[in-house]
């Protein structure tokens, strides 16, 4: 039996995701020495990311923002001219049909696209007042402040304990490591399930537990923003609802940007929602564009654009 074109596109996307996820684990394991993120406004201070473009409440505090961001892969445009803020302490959902550039945009926020050969990011991606793509910015340091949770959990081939302790250890943390590990596992709502088996292999955990372990690993280095790319799409309903509860508990300390195909999930967890779609570009090929950004309530109950209305009501995409 031959694959349908749709299946091969999905397979190709899954293959790319796997490759990126292992590149990310490799980098984490082999390049753990990171310096501070020079120039970023310290945590707890007001940020200055494009205040003039701030929406919906001018003067409030976007921890990150996209300003006219376009992304291409080997000169083929994937995302065109996207602008929206990521308010501090909020949960922002990116929704839209397959191929509209949600993952691409998400990966701009922690320089993960640097690990994708041929990927070029243009425009202004800001985090706490700094241009994330400025030459002096260390992408590995960025990825410590801004963690990415993949669709398929990618624990290290180490024990549960060592997965969570890895970040603090490599950052030269000298305090009580047991304490940090327990705290991160508690914050990720996994502690009770693993406290008696911390020395066991992480890969022996269930998918839902692995996903929470990966979140605990990210939390152990006190990230500022967590990026989640369909974090619950491979999980059963109970694990999914755990991840959703967890997201709500982590905010407002941690800001979350989540990509999801599950519209109910976006409606349940997100404060703000960005709707992207694919549209014909100059030569007729499709490119991802932002159609609308607003409070989740407004996007779902009262969309300003006909395309958003069609998508959220299930009439398209
Ligand atoms: N590594 C890559 N190399 C080449 N093209 C890519 C790569 N990753 C994504 N693309 C292309 O960029 C466009 C946007 O892809 P992206 O994965 O960001 O979309 P998406 O909205 O996340 O889709 P999905 O909902 O299927 O995950 C698509 O045309 C895709 O084929
Ligand atoms: Mg995607």
Key terms for this structure?
binds magnesium ion; binds adenosine-5'-triphosphate; 4-stranded antiparallel sheet; 317 residues; Rossmann fold; 6-stranded mixed sheet; alpha/beta
Q: Secondary structure elements and their pairing?
A:
Blueprint: H1 5-30, E1 62-73, E2 76-87, E3 91-95, H2 102-108, E4 119-127, E5 130-131, H3 139-145, E6 146-149, H4 160-170, H5 177-187, H6 191-194, H7 207-219, E7 225-229, H8 237-250, E8 255-259, H9 263-269, E9 272-280, E10 286-295, H10 296-301, H11 306-312
Parallel strand pairs: 3-8, 3-9, 6-7, 7-8
Antiparallel strand pairs: 1-2, 1-4, 4-5, 9-10
Helix pairs in contact: 4-5, 4-7, 5-7
Bound molecules: adenosine-5'-triphosphate (ATP) and magnesium ion.
Adenosine-5'-triphosphate binds next to α1 and α2.
Structure description:
This protein is α/β, with parallel strands linked by helices. The protein has a single domain (5-312), classed as Rossmann fold, CATH 3.40.50. The chain has helices at residues 5-30, 102-108, 139-145, 160-170, 177-187, 191-194, 207-219, 237-250, 263-269, 296-301, 306-312; strands spanning 62-73, 76-87, 91-95, 119-127, 130-131, 146-149, 225-229, 255-259, 272-280, 286-295. The strands form 2 sheets. Strands 6-7-8-3-9-10 form a 6-stranded mixed β-sheet, sandwiched between helices. It has a 4-stranded antiparallel β-sheet with strand order 2-1-4-5, covered by helices on one side. Helix 4 (160-170) runs parallel beside helix 7 (207-219). It starts with a helix and ends in a 5-residue tail after the last helix. The model has no long low-confidence stretch (mean pLDDT 87).
């Amino acid at each position: 039996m031959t694959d349908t074109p749709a299946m091969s596109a999905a397979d190709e996307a899954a293959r790319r995701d796997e490759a990126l996820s292992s590149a990310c684990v490799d980098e984490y394991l082999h390049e753990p020495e990171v310096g501070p993120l020079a120039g970023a406004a310290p945590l707890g201070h007001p940020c200055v990311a494009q205040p003039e473009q701030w929406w919906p409440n001018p003067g409030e505090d976007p921890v990150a923002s996209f300003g006219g961001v376009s992304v291409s892969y080997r000169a083929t445009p994937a995302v065109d001219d996207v602008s929206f803020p990521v308010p501090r302490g909020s949960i922002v959902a990116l929704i839209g049909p397959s191929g509209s550039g949600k993952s691409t945009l998400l990966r701009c926020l922690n320089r993960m696209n640097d690990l994708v050969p041929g990927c070029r990011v243009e425009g202004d991606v800001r985090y706490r007042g700094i241009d994330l793509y400025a030459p002096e910015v260390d992408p590995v340091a960025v990825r410590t402040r801004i963690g990415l949770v993949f669709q398929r959990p990618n624990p290290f081939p180490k024990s549960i304990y060592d997965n969570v302790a890895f970040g603090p250890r490599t950052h030269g943390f000298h305090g009580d490591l047991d304490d940090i590990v327990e705290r991160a596992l508690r914050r990720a709502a996994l502690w009770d399930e693993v406290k008696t088996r911390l020395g066991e292999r992480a890969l022996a955990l269930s998918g839902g537990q692995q996903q929470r372990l990966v979140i605990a690993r990210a939390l152990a280095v006190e990230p500022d923003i967590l990026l989640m790319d369909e974090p619950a799409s491979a999980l059963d309903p109970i694990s999914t609802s755990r991840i959703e509860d967890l997201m709500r508990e982590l905010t407002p300390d941690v800001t979350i940007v989540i990509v999801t195909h599950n519209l109910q999930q976006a409606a349940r967890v997100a404060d703000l929602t960005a709707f992207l779609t694919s549209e014909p570009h100059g030569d007729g090929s499709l490119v991802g564009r932002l159609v609308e950004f607003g409070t989740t309530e407004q996007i779902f109950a009262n969309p300003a654009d006909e395309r958003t209305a069609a998508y959220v009501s299930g009439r398209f995409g």
